Amino acid sequence: MENIDAVLAGERLALARMLTEVENDTPQGRAALNALFPRTGRAHLVGVTGAPGTGKSSLVNRLAHAFRHPQDGSEPARVAVVAVDPTSPFTGGALLGDRVRMRDLSGDPGIFIRSMASRGALGGLAMRTAAVVQVLDAAGYEMIFIETVGAGQSEVDIARLAHTTLVVESPGAGDDIQASKAGILEIADILVVNKADRPGADTTERALQAMLGQAQAVSGKHLRKSTPDAAEGETAGWQIPVMRTIAVNGEGTPELAAAIRSHRDYLKESGTWQQRDEMRLKNELDSLLQSTLFARWQESVPRERYQQTLDLLAARSISPLQAVERLLDN
Amino acid sequence: MENIDAVLAGERLALARMLTEVENDTPQGRAALNALFPRTGRAHLVGVTGAPGTGKSSLVNRLAHAFRHPQDGSEPARVAVVAVDPTSPFTGGALLGDRVRMRDLSGDPGIFIRSMASRGALGGLAMRTAAVVQVLDAAGYEMIFIETVGAGQSEVDIARLAHTTLVVESPGAGDDIQASKAGILEIADILVVNKADRPGADTTERALQAMLGQAQAVSGKHLRKSTPDAAEGETAGWQIPVMRTIAVNGEGTPELAAAIRSHRDYLKESGTWQQRDEMRLKNELDSLLQSTLFARWQESVPRERYQQTLDLLAARSISPLQAVERLLDN
């Protein structure tokens, strides 16, 4: 297909258009995903998450720069950034975000940035993000940063797409760790205290270290991604580091980039890379199966039958579970 | 059933036990939901959401108190609080949260507090919360606060359970509105600036007012819950207020409680109460259908067949979409 050749040849406009087709789940998008999928599996996927205001976007910009211009003599990587930005539609935030980013990183053909809006696709955001990441992977981007704004269950789901997950904190009031409130600390491979020049950075770092220590003491093993299908102790060899960065001036970002590379090496050597890959694909397959089964069922059931059941439910004549039985076991 | 009678008679221990059964989706829990469902539909469900650190829990405690001890001569309501608290398991945060709350509100049999942890139930949190709320509704709690920590898509999903949704902000750096970043402003019926005695409260309030104005200008109607199934203009009569509170000393909370009552009156008079009720039940029915269809399919498919497909997928021999076709269209 013409558009696929263009994407593989590195044409940015063709790539942007294909991502739109894929995001909108059009027939062209689906065909493109099928054609490109054999070329996926090479990129290092890095999730970056944390509460609003921790400076994640600036940090990702710095990391993109660090992987474009490595100081240790390694090869520059092609870098893509997927910003999952559930910004309110009326602020135009996603678009503005793109513009600001473009200004920082523009002119470099080795960097591609894509913002995704969550609006209008409840529950499907993780799946659409997975598809977008696959296209970028196939298009030859070797480092793909997946940045999520906010801190909730959907952010955790999206972080699960990644090989390496960074959880970003910034110094707050006292030892108030935002990420622990939102339950996202447990998905971290690397913890980052950004804005480390601000008052309270030491307190935040100590609080994170204490939490890591506590987790070890409680569970007898390292705080790790809770992945029920993964082998026990898969990451016994990885010590979660707490890194300090100042994204506005770039301090600490080369060291953070090095830690990301170390984690990649660890994943490859321990076999965890492949485990995470398979788990990610299994999750994606199950999500697709679930939505396809429901869509097919919806097509098969007469509209009036569904509406009658809903009316009985609204009248409290039957419970939701009884409504399901009525519709599936007639 | 004995346990149902005990719950309806107001026995708190029986209620707590039943909620555990319902949360764990046990056969007893399912039977209880079926038996209790005809008694639901009376409670006013109030969602309270916003970024971590905005003081939502303190605010909900104050509101619970305000509805227990109304100053306008109205009847005291029985109040339940469902705290959806995806706190990291190793901190014991949910349990600790309960204890702190209990200390504030203890000794009042008209208040019931329940914390839910998100851990281990990816994607199912909104459904489990809906079930817990139904039991509390049937048990006679007239005001049910559903408090979500964090700010992401799942929090939006949970807020959709409510008749009235409060989005809480606190003064931050400049006009930095956390909720707008996380895309949750659009679900608000009432906006709250908590910690209104802190510097920057005026700026935060003005920024929220400006966003409301902008939304009206852009869309030609009020910023509203985006509910595709709802009639257009359902809430043309509701002006989203921006309220100021200081939860630590209770300032502004009686006024906020009055605004919640006004919203309830508005919903009842405009017919929107019933519309939201039906939409909530439709969402719950569809989620249940989706998970049931998938569970039944999983039971029907031979394990080796699924594993073979997964192996082909991991080898990049077939794409996720082709894997779905292979499994469903054999």
The order of strands across the largest sheet of chain A is 3-2-4-1-5-6-7
**How large is the radius of gyration of chain A?**
22 Å
Order of helices and strands of chain A: HHHEHEHEHEHEHEHEHHHH
CATH fold description of chain A:
Rossmann fold
The DSSP helix count of chain A reads: 13
Which stretches of chain A are low in confidence, meaning pLDDT under 50 for 5 or more residues running?
A: 87-100, 220-235
Task: Let me know the number of strands of chain A.
Answer: 7
Largest binding interface between chains: A-B, 83 and 84 residues
User: Under the CATH scheme, which architecture of chain A would be assigned?
Assistant: 3-Layer(aba) Sandwich
Largest sheet of chain A: 7 strands, parallel
Percent strand of chain A equals: 5-15%
* Overall SS class of chain A: alpha/beta
User: Domains counted in the coordinates of chain A: how many?
Assistant: 1
Q: What spatial form of chain A do the alpha-carbon principal axes imply? A: globular
Oligomer: homodimer
Look at the structure and give the CATH class of chain A: Alpha Beta
Percentage of residues in helical conformation of chain A = 40-55%
Mean pLDDT value of chain A? 82
The CATH fourth-level homologous superfamily of chain A: P-loop containing nucleotide triphosphate hydrolases
Give the end-to-end Cα distance of chain A, rounded to a whole number of Å.
46 Å
3D structure, described in words:
- Two copies of one chain form a homodimer.
- Chain A has 330 residues and is α/β, with parallel strands linked by helices.
- The first copy, chain A, has a single domain, classed as P-loop containing nucleotide triphosphate hydrolases (Rossmann fold, 3-Layer(aba) Sandwich), CATH 3.40.50.300.
- The first copy, chain A, has 13 helices and seven strands.
- Chain A has helices at 2-8, 12-23, 27-36, 56-68, 93-105, 125-138, 153-159, 178-181, 201-219, 253-270, 272-300, 303-314, 320-328, and strands at 44-49, 79-84, 111-116, 143-148, 164-169, 190-193, 242-244.
- A seven-stranded parallel beta sheet of chain A has the order 3-2-4-1-5-6-7, with helices on both faces.
- In chain A, helix 4 (56-68) packs across helix 10 (253-270) and helix 6 packs parallel to helix 7.
- The longest helix of chain A is centred in the last third of the chain and has 29 residues, at 272-300.
- The radius of gyration of chain A is 22 Å and the shape is globular.
- Mean pLDDT of chain A is 82; it is low at 87-100 and 220-235.
- At the A-B interface, helix 3, helix 7, helix 8, helix 9 and helix 11 of A face helix 3, helix 7, helix 8, helix 9 and helix 11 of B.
